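Consider the subject:
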Amino acid sequence: MSITAPSENKESSSYKVFSKNQLQEFVEVQTWLKTIGKSSVNLYLNALKKFCEFSGKNPGELILMRDKETRNPDPNSRTGIRDLIFDFRCYLEKEKYAPKTINSLDGAVRSFFTAVLGREGMVNVKNYRNRQVTIKKDLVPTLEELKKMLDVCNLEEKFRIIFLSQTGMRVSDVLDLKVGDIERELEQEKVPLAVTYLPGKDRENIGERTTFLASDGVTLLKQYLEWRKKKGETIISDSYLFVSRSKKYRGKGSKRLERWQMNQTVKTAAIKAGIGNDNGKYGRMRIHCLRKFFATQLTNHGIEDRIVDFFLCHKIPEVDRVYWIRRAEELRDIYRVREKYLNPLTGVQTRKDIEEMKRLKERVEKLEKMVSKLQKMQSIGKRKHDAKIVTSKEEIIELAQHGYSCQLIGENQWLLTK
């Protein structure tokens, strides 16, 4: 593989390819990686790998180049690495990388120089200008669209999709869940069912979190576990909640489901249901879209942002984290009020029933008004028919015996009504 890079020597265009393992042999890279979270190591190494191949220099040479620049008394001679980064951005644009990807690769490369050389080595350039541009848009499904996806899935696929959409968890945390993590709540028939876990990403700052699975999800969970048992699997507390169904591991349940398998489940369901992916008209459907669905539904129906962030495992103030983790039942009540907006199987039908009931109520109220009006008209007509005007006391006495009431309306004239 040859990489073309801008250089003072235009004729030189072929450079060696670095592997990630080779990069980690450099002392400079080892120093850099100590400042990076474990979950981000691959992303940062991939960025540096691309930059080294692009520039035709190894990490050590890049650091020496930048160090030499910072010591140069002439400001105009300190721009070599900066210009290289600008050219790297242009190269990635030509290769049609997504703007957000370019921004993350660019940021990772600049952090390399800062981590090794400190503030003096910082490459002072603005962030990538197009970082907010979105080329591929995500399709956040509605509750009705989510139901369409479930309708074309088997039981195992339904449970995967509904669990992601009702808990809002990151797929990496979902795949690490064990049956024991939800066993106690399931045995106690708790609905919504609490899922308490320690996230893999930035766990030292985020700490333990709790989210919930709504009633539709709990129903499918029970059916799913029974189905696995009927397949011959022995389920214990240490069994993964989501397992691979490949022939090699079928019946054993020891192989954890992979991220790509979960993502393929969501994409395939969307295509079968005619939602996104197939023609890209409304955007792409992927596993992260279900997390967005969860956040959208709860936010749109009155849950305050800090609680939604708690459910989503975003960073929140330490006081809020401690407060909410100790009030699981309060969180359950907050979630329960809105769970119908997360229930694609019963929630959709429930909303239709409510709308129909409103229409029926309006019709009944109209009929009641009409009946009341008719009754008044009949009463008035009846009073007019039973009214008599008399001029003598004898007539008054006679009609009074038949239930008439008397009212003087003129000289020697009385109105008798019944």
